[in-house]
Amino acid sequence: MMDRRTGTSLARLGLTGPGADATLRELGWWDGDAPVAGCEEIMWALARSPDPELALRAVERLAQTPPWPAVDRTLRTDRGLRGRLFATLGASTALGDHLITHPDRWELLADTPDRRNPPPDLARRTANLLRAVGADPSAPPPGTPGGARATLTGAEAVTALRSAYRDELLGLASADLAAVGDPALPVMEVDDVAAQLADLAEAALTAALAVAAAEQEPPDELRLAVIGLGKCGGRELNYVSDVDVVFVAEPGGELTQSATKLASRVMRVAGEACFEVDANLRPEGRQGALVRTLDGHITYYRRWAKTWEFQALLKARPIAGDPELGKAYVDALAPLVWQVSTRDDFVADVQAMRTRVVENIPSHQRERELKLGRGGLRDVEFAVQLLQLVHGRSDDTLHSGNTLHALAALAEGGYVGRDDGANLAASYRFLRLLEHRLQLQKLRRTHLLPAADDTDALRWLARSARIRADGRRDVVGVLVTEWQRNARRVSRLHEKLFYRPLLSAVSRLAGEEADAVLSPDAAKARLKALGWASPEGALGHLRGLTGGVSRAASIQRALLPVLLDELSHSPDPDRGLLAYRRVSEALAATPWYLRLLRDEGAVAQRLMTLLGTSALVPDLLQRAPEVLRMLATSSGVQSPELTRDPAEVSVALRTTVARQSSPEAAVASARSYRRHEMLRIACADLLGLVEVDAVFAALNSVNEAVIASTLDAVLRAEQERMAVLSVIGMGRLGGGESSYGSDADVMYVCAPAEGVSDHDAVRWATRVVEKVRRLLESPSPDPALPVDADLRPEGRSGPMVRTLASYREYYARWGEVWEAQALLRARPIAGDRMLGREFTAMIDPIRYPADGIAASSVAEIRRIKARVDAERLPRGADRSTHTKLGLGGLADVEWTVQLLQLQHAGDLPELRTTSTLDGLREAAEAGLIDDGDAQELEEGWRTATSARNAIMLVKGKPGDQLPRSGRELVAVAAALGYPAGGDPGVFLDDYRRITRRARAVVERVFYGWEG
């Protein structure tokens, strides 16, 4: 009882709104200073409401109805009524409105033994709703021959069903909320509430079918069954949710049309009265027939159904209509469900569906999504269903459509740890409770938590979920903390559920870690389903990583559940796990390696992405492990070390190499530095942190620095210098467009020292550059930098080094148009700068002719290009996806730009650039090519360049042909930013579309073809 001497104020009771005092006086519960005698418990129950002000406003409206005096009298003595009424009115405006519209329903909240904790009673609810529409509950079920039919039809039936459904909902919700209004009242578990909501949905569909049968008058022999899927099928329904169904009817033939009309009307009646009925999970979705025969369903699922369709069937159960037909449907299709994990694309399909769901969440809502966000309800359901499908093939104890029942069975069978299963179930119940409360408020479908700054809404949610302040934090703080804690726990357990038992299968784990031990066969089945093509090999790697009692093995056992989960989402988990084992063994003596992975979650996540995508990265990583530190983030901000300025890198490399005492030591240092930089660039590229322009600028800069520093080291070791020497970059190196697998195309020019003949100078310079080449290409653990001088005059038959005068004479007497074209990319990159400038000045009139090139030269370039296209494309290559020589590929775009330069750079100095993209932009600026055409060519060039880089990253060796299918294609697409679990065909379609458009421009601009 409340003590009147305490001086209790309305503010203490949470009633601070204007008019609260007057309303309570009018109700006779408050005398201005304290509760009226006999009303103390009423006031305390009102104060415990999730929103006392909202509840009081609803009571004020209810007091205007005829039953109020009886309600008021009962409130003074009926503890159950007080708890249910005030909690319901403060938690749900929709149910409050229903009660006020139908005030006689207040008795549904009065205390009786059943209402203290209502038992699941499908038969009672079904009878109530059938009676509401005038159907006989004792008749056979609607949908069967002679089944019950309603006497009410049309709008009258809908209104009656809606009212009866809301009555049932009011009774269930008030029992669910009762402990909020009075902690002494029983607490309904959220899974019991969800099961009874599913029962209520079944009852509503049965009544809707009785109405539809009365309106449609189907033939007596027609049998129709309604199969529940989703949450209704699993008996875990929300307060507000679509009810997923499929319809099956017998016999077929001419009666199919009648069955379709009947099913369609069922959906409409239930949708107008109770909830949306969604039949889009039926075969062929919205485009498919609404109703099929049993044989029609079986044929579809055997021949055409996709993986996700079998996953949906996991929860299938008959919920209305002909029970025998419904049972026959489930019995016929269940065996197909439990075989789906044997499909080759099983895990990819399931993960792709999960990825699509997450991607459809607006970015500003992801952190508040109870259902679809990271650590949300769908993560629990996804994990449980995947494990069911993997192991349910051989264990029928897992054949449950209910998430919590299935999770308990997985724990009981040893497929997940007991503690992990219990913790995941607890988090799932907490999240479902919040979801239920959010939906109850206005009976609207929502899974979105209130915004962080909406403290009133958060306070209401916390109170309606029976959350209390803990002495340090108010209810809002406790709610937010609990939500975040449970979301984190779900995310963590989502990883552990799949992989911790695998480790138990290959190593001895102590304590709670060993409570879920899979047999070797079960471990292989799980790995295969989760994306490993070679489960036996994967288990071998796990044994190698976790075997023994060393500290490293212990850390690996703690890390691997997370790492394996990340790997399973990569394009090639098998290669990734092998690479991780090799890297771990290579870095076994590196003290900070495992500690970094353990303590820096971002490093572990990114490393698995890299290893599961690229063959190049693990190769480089074993000798450049320090790059791992660059994968860390600080407060979500990327380390600047991963995206360093190329000029800074070049200076640092040359400075480091200059300290070495011999050419051999210098080149070893330069190549080691290049390995480090290639790995850094590759990591930044694969993680999507740099654009393609930055990639080739960085690669080009480091390649130039390696050549320059090696040349400097060789020259320092020479006892006498007989000439000055300059290295001219050609091809992609000269254009500043090096890719991961590019050779260094160069030419060499020398000038004799004073008193030295041209012959002796050339011989000395040749010896120097040959030594540079040998050092750069010598066997070493570090990647070689092949130096290619075949673009020099006379090619391989010509001298390696020439003087400036020799070059001038050659080009004047024998130079051909293709050699002038090659010189368009010539640029000094190392050696004597003055000589390099002199060489550039000498070749400028050749590559930028004052009057352009003759028509015959244009024809010759086109002829050479056509011959290259015809003769150099490898046998069996696909011209539509060959990045270099394919349609709209690199050669197409580059030759087009170079032709424009040869024709116009003599008059337009702006075109005098070695860069393809700069030349293209300047050509567009000068009006030599339409802006739209220039854009198409640029996009084609960028796409082909990026794809070529991705091939090298994925395969670990240069290549120009895109993979046609398989994991390599998936990895190339992922390296280019496409979803790892998505359809790589989307990437191929995009590539072909972009390059096809580029080719159309090439045909007009380069070849001069019209139309």
TrEMBL record:
Gene3D superfamilies linked: Beta Polymerase, domain 2, Nucleotidyltransferases domain 2
Domain PII-uridylyltransferase/Glutamine-synthetase adenylyltransferase: 352-498, 864-1006
Catalytic activity from the UniProt record: [glutamine synthetase]-L-tyrosine + ATP = [glutamine synthetase]-O(4)-(5'-adenylyl)-L-tyrosine + diphosphate; [glutamine synthetase]-O(4)-(5'-adenylyl)-L-tyrosine + phosphate = [glutamine synthetase]-L-tyrosine + ADP
GO annotations of cellular component type: cytosol
Keyword list, A-Z: ATP-binding, Ligase, Magnesium, Multifunctional enzyme, Nucleotide-binding, Nucleotidyltransferase, Transferase
InterPro entries: GlnE, GlnE_rpt_dom, NT_sf, PII_UdlTrfase/GS_AdlTrfase
GO function term, MF aspect, one: [glutamate-ammonia-ligase] adenylyltransferase activity
Region entry Adenylyl removase, spans: 1-502
Signal sequence annotation: none
Pfam families linked: GlnD_UR_UTase, GlnE
EC number(s) recorded for this UniProt protein: 2.7.7.89, 2.7.7.42
Region annotation (Adenylyl transferase) ranges: 510-1011
Cofactor(s) annotated in UniProt: Mg(2+)
Family, as annotated: Belongs to the GlnE family.
PANTHER family: BIFUNCTIONAL GLUTAMINE SYNTHETASE ADENYLYLTRANSFERASE_ADENYLYL-REMOVING ENZYME (PTHR30621:SF0), GLUTAMINE SYNTHETASE ADENYLYLTRANSFERASE (PTHR30621)
HAMAP family according to UniProt: GlnE
Biological role stated in the UniProt entry: Involved in the regulation of glutamine synthetase GlnA, a key enzyme in the process to assimilate ammonia. When cellular nitrogen levels are high, the C-terminal adenylyl transferase (AT) inactivates GlnA by covalent transfer of an adenylyl group from ATP to specific tyrosine residue of GlnA, thus reducing its activity. Conversely, when nitrogen levels are low, the N-terminal adenylyl removase (AR) activates GlnA by removing the adenylyl group by phosphorolysis, increasing its activity.
Protein name per Swiss-Prot or TrEMBL: Bifunctional glutamine synthetase adenylyltransferase/adenylyl-removing enzyme
Species, as recorded: Pseudonocardia autotrophica
Gene: glnE
